[in-house]
Structures
1.
Amino acid sequence: MLYESLEIVREQVANYLNETGLGENMVVLDNIAQFIDNPNTDNQSLDNKIVLSLLNMEEETAMKNLKNTVTQNGNHIYKNNPINLNLYLLFICNRTDYAFSLRSLSGIIEFFQGKKLFTQTNTTFSRSNEAMQAITNFKFTVELYTPTFEELNYIWGTLGGKSYPSALYKLNLVSLEREHILGSRAPIATLGGTLNHIN
């Protein structure tokens, strides 16, 4: 659900920018560091675009120790807990005109101000590729994350040193789980043994 979550966000933001007249198909999911490191290579797919890059991720440890058992056909199925991740998404406005980059950045902020919760019931998305067709249930929130100047300097230094108008968002709780069963057993239905009365 890692790629799928980013693709849903990318498409939703792109649709909003298109509706507000800021351009059609403006948001691409790609690694901005490759563009910054190699500006002379053929990067037409990122020219005059808004690039969405996964900057970092962290495990949500508060949900790490929950039991992960389900009951199927009268048996208890035991699995490892899913990995719950918070993702840090960087929107970089690489538009040809600086003023247009700022307008695009404003549009991104407006979109997330109006929509913070994403679920299968309030989000319509394209199922044009195989990964997106398999999505059934999802729920995550997106909130603006403001790094300090020191963190911002470190981020752009890591990405190649060149700064662009950008916004950093934290996407909360993407759950990843492999279909791997640790064990299965029937539930305890009766207790046996003898109870002795104590005087």
2.
Amino acid sequence: MSKARGFIQEFQEFAVKGNMIDLAVGVIIGAAFGKIIDSLVRDIIMPIVNFILGGEVNFASKFWLLRAPESYTGPQTYEALNKAGAVVLSWGNFLTVAINFVLLAFVVFMLVKAVNSMRNRLKRAEPEVAAAPAPTPEDVALLREIRDLLKR
């Protein structure tokens, strides 16, 4: 029974350490941030690309059909082919995910760069406090006293 209690206590210490909580918060915020970047690509960047290219560019619907089921006569859309069990190489979806990754990496890079810049400014603004000299070890102090007594 005490081994189980010790294991539970050890797990509690592990789970509620500051670093573990920070990591959990980072993962949750990272997931939410990924959704924001996905929306940025889908709702803002892709419409601008569509406007510039003068048409409807939907990378998610771009694919190559490698092999369709023999009896399939339905529509040639990604969703229908995928549902029918066709072998489809969805390069457009991969391109969309790759764009999302590049944008996310760029935004994270800019955030880290801004945080580092603020840290450097704060370091330069802090007055440097002279470190107090380390206390003299007892043996050295004793030797100095003996030296001073011998001089007298």
3.
Amino acid sequence: MDSGSFYITLGRQLRARRRAKHMTLNELAEKLNKSTATVSKYEKGEIFISVDTLVDICRILNVDISSLLPDTCMKEDPNDVTRYQKYFSERLYLYWFNGEKNKLQKAVLVNQKMSFKTTMYYDVADISNYYEANYVYEGRVFYTDSCMDFILSCTEPPFDTLTLRLSSLNRHSSYKVGLLSTISYFYQNIAMKVIVSDAPLPEDEELISSLRLTADDLKNIKRTNFFYAQ
């Protein structure tokens, strides 16, 4: 990664964390004792951020600085990294259908492959501009030969924990169906059928149709009394 693209990505990540805290650019600039124009340039990647300033921003935004930096070392068991690296994806794109709002909703998972850390940009309007997410979750992914489990916590209130389970992605399928569980805005436990892909999918009626629960889905849920995805 060249320094230019690194600082552009870093700036976008910082902007996402600031927005998740509902903090304005002016408020962050005041806390840093810097001009609003300077902080804006940090977020746009137009000027480099010193280590001292980055530490200050992370302290103010309550962000683990390591979550903003690319993998530089292998923190997991090297045998696990070797065993599961065929399942690694730098980004995963999530889609689910919100029946209450009657709309397609989306999220993007950005994975640090060597450390098994992951960040979810949740509820995004534009999948190609996922840093403008309404919520940011931090966590990690657990790999097995049969499935991947993501466990993440929201970085801001309501501080809920979100879990995602899906079969291990492989190059023989374009997407997988998984189960996403969290709490609603009204603190109700919910579980959602999601489609997960390592590339953006067309946001068309075919996708929406595949996300709706079918009569067979409901029949099996009633029969087993389990939420499940296949």
4.
Amino acid sequence: MNKFMDWVTNSFTPKINKIARNVWVSAVQESILAAMPMVFIGSFATLLNIIRKYWSAFPDLEVISTFSFGLFSIFLSYLIPESLMNKKQNQDSAKQAGLAGLAFFLILVYPTITENGIIQFDINTFGAGGMIAALLAGLFVAVVMNLATKWKFIGEDSAIPDFVAVWFNTLLPILIILLIGWLFTFQLEINLYSVINTIFSPLIYLGQSFWGFVLVYFLGFAFFYSFGISSWVIYPVQTAIALPAIAQNQSNYSMGAEVTNIFTNEAGSVALIGGGGMTLSLCIMLAFLAKSNRLRLIGKASFIPSIFNINEPIVFGAPIAFNPILMIPMWINGFVGPVLTYLVMTIGLVPIPHSPFQLWYIPIGLGGWLFTQSWQGAVYQIILFIISWFIYYPFFKAYDRQATKEDYEMETTED
């Protein structure tokens, strides 16, 4: 175990963190996070629409979701090239890169133009279903715009105003980007949107499999996290699978078709009771059952955040991170939670989520009901909590004995 911990600490963790700090990866992460408030708005629309199940006179607010969560890909197509240019210290042309990304994405989704000059889009391509296409479009534009900064028509020493220089220096790369889009869509009549989704369909298929769901949530929210590696490292991959999946579930449900995609943020959130690794039960043990004064204080300080599924205080305060005694039950819970969630949804004991609801910080019980829009989801969360309690308890007792002994030795030394 010591050799494994040394390898993870000195080799594995630094390499993963280096990848996470890469400007291209961090630009995608930052862009997704920047657009998340629009996804949350869609979640509020879903929450309010639950009222319509019990009060038919309540207005249908689904259109709010259409113009927030439903435009997620458009937002990404702008944000990714803008973020990358900022990170590459090319702030003067960042907004132009964002606009070029938006324009290129709108060409890429294969619009049709009628004889009367009316342009028509499939609005489904603007939502989470077009996320991978938007991501690649944004990265392509970022590459072209970043390369163009090395060859400028007007140098920094020119007497021409800076904003005018930016105009002329970005004309050629933007023209190249739009010509490429024009060539594929309007001349070769190749639907790049469909091509991209076809190429990446194996990723989506793999993600929707049992092992895809289990491994992503286990690695990101338990294993990596226990070594101090943020779950945001896998967030782009997780989001690329989960958001299109819930969008398809929503579409299928509205048409009366079967809802099949389990790998969604909503389903994953059902098993995040107190945060990754289902740490709420451990927090309660520390706060109210620990004999160690230090652990009891940490538990009480972490209690309120844990109720809302924020477990950084306990992961790094107890700590769980780099602590072999508490890492092991966190791994077990981080594996058991996704496994059971996938199974109960597969066999129909708990409904598969069919509406976007990204408010993952909803407390246990209420969260299960809102994520799945069923009482079964609430009951299932409570059962998961009980299971997590039994898994954590023997490790908690062992760690509490160790911490109590350490507290006593410290007090004796001070005296």
